[in-house]
Specification:
Blueprint: H1 3-10, E1 24-28, H2 47-53, E2 57-61
Parallel strand pairs: 1-2
């Protein structure tokens, strides 16, 4: 059964909750990372403050 059907049956609101953004910055980060991917990873320590300072919102991915 699809999750939208289950949500409707449960009386949950069906409006989307996806993040809104005009742009995304996707970073490939090999290896593990913690809860704050940019700060708790093997990336350059100067990367996180730069990425978090202004839009677009950074998104990390792993291969």
């Amino acid at each position: 059964m699809r999750c939208s059907i289950l949500s409707d049956f449960a009386g949950e609101p069906l409006a989307g909750t996806a993040a809104t953004a005009t742009a995304w910055l996707c970073l490939e980060q090999p290896g593990p990372w913690g809860r704050d991917a940019l700060l708790e990873s093997h990336s350059d320590p100067e990367l996180a403050p730069s990425c978090n300072a202004a839009p677009p919102a950074p998104v990390c991915a792993s291969c």
